[in-house]
Amino acid sequence: MQILITGGTGLIGKQLCKALLAEGHELTVFSRNPASVPAKCGAGVHAIGALGEWHPGKTFDAVINLAGEPIVDARWTARRKQVLWDSRVTLTKELVRHIATAGRKPAVLISGSAVGYYGNRGDTAMYEAADAGEDFAAQLCKAWEDAAHAAEQVGVRVCLLRTGLILSNKGGLLGRMLPAFKLGLGARLGNGKQWMSWVHIDDYVAMVLKLLHDSFASGDQASLALASGPYNMTAPQPATNAEFTAALAKALHRPALFAAPAPLLRLAMGERAGLILEGQKVLPGKMTAAGYRFQYPNLDDALGNLFGR
Ligand SMILES: NC(=O)c1ccc[n+]([C@@H]2O[C@H](COP(=O)([O-])OP(=O)(O)OC[C@H]3O[C@@H](n4cnc5c(N)ncnc54)[C@H](OP(=O)(O)O)[C@@H]3O)[C@@H](O)[C@H]2O)c1
After folding, report:
1. Does residue 235 contact residue 302 with C-beta atoms inside 8 Å?
2. Mapping DSSP to helix (H, G, I), strand (E, B) and coil, where does residue 248 land?
3. Is 238 in the pocket of ligand 1 (CB under 6 A)?
4. Is the CB of 208 under 6 A from ligand 1?
5. CATH number of residue 191's parent domain
6. Which domain holds residue 192?
7. CA of 37 to the centre of ligand 1 (A)
8. In total, how many domains does the chain have?
9. Whose CA is nearest to atom 30 of ligand 1?
10. Is 41 in the pocket of ligand 1 (CB under 6 A)?
11. 26 strand-pairing partners
12. pLDDT, tens digit (0-9, with 9 covering 90-100), for 58-69
């Protein structure tokens, strides 16, 4: 297949490109720094520096849309919120405009979102049918999904990736947590009761491939119907922050005796502290129903795999 990927140079994108190349697909990655694409995504991967380079005569069989400015890295000023919005919602709208004008349209658009879609939901289990939350992250995810969903109007199957906290030993959440944990300074955040809906990157990539291939199953309406709409891209056993802290400390053979007080975190981080002090217990209802079998359903096994147990 010919596949266009935005965000292909990121933590998830690089791993996904590797898996797609191994299956023999031909990849084009949209990046603000196209010269970096072959080194990050694989020799032979084409690069475009603007979506305008996708001219109507060029055919892609599938589009995977992962681009987005990192959400946790900087304080949410009005300007930063606009950057976060433009890099997801505005870019996705532009992508869908290109899909709509393509001579032959891709069969499927697989587009990013996050478990933050649900907002802060306490201990209630969240399945795909639940409503979006009210906070900024939730509204950002909702608008991002709505922008992608518009591609259905031109006959493209759309899958939305409500992505959990990706566990990888190459960066992301664990990349941020490891320095303190390795020094034995790992700490529970606030009261530690907030849910963390995590997923091992190998499972994540395998689930994206499943969505891609299910959508290409020819003539099988039941299978086609499975691979559309939102998917909770999380492991089936989410953990509270206290459980996650203890599991990571155990995997690294370090103590984690501290607690970072919520007021201090809110002072230091402002509104985005909600990302780590609040949470949602998200379960992969549709993936499980579609028959996906997790390689790492259990947090200890996922961390053990990443840290060489
Ligand atoms: N990792 C997680 O735990 C997690 C959890 C939930 C949701 N997600 C979402 O899943 C997506 C991929 O995650 P990731 O961890 O792979 O992210 P990442 O490592 O931060 O990579 C993000 C990608 O987006 C592109 N990008 C960043 N800012 C952009 C902008 N202003 N305009 C266009 N492209 C931009 C970058 O490409 P170039 O620099 O090459 O242009 C980069 O490849 C993100 O949208 C993220 O919000 C991730």
Report:
1. yes
2. helix
3. no
4. no
5. 3.40.50.720
6. 2-306
7. 14
8. 1
9. 87
10. no
11. 2
12. 999 999 999 999
Taking the model in full, what pTM does it have? 0.96
Answer whether residue 159 shows pLDDT above 50: yes
Is the C-alpha dihedral spanning 164, 170, 171, 177 positive or negative? positive
Please work out whether the CB of residue 173 comes within 6 Å of at least one atom of ligand 1: yes
Q: How far is the CA of 173 from the centre of ligand 1 (A)?
A: 13
Cβ contacts of 62 within 8 Å, gap of 6 or more: 1, 2, 3, 4, 106, 107, 108, 109, 110, 212, 215, 216
Residue-wise pLDDT tens digits, 200-241: 999 999 999 999 998 554 444 554 455 899 999 999 999 999
Angle at alpha carbon of residue 10, lines to 58 and 290, rounded to 5° = 75
Please give the Cα distance from 148 to 298 (Å, whole number).
31
Separation of CA 180 and ligand 1 centre (Å): 24
Of 201, 92, 82, give the one whose Cα is nearest residue 156: 92
- CB of 245 closer than 6 angstroms to any ligand 1 atom: no
Q: Tell which one of 6, 41, 66 to mutate to probe ligand 1, the residue whose CB is within 8 A of the most ligand atoms.
A: 66
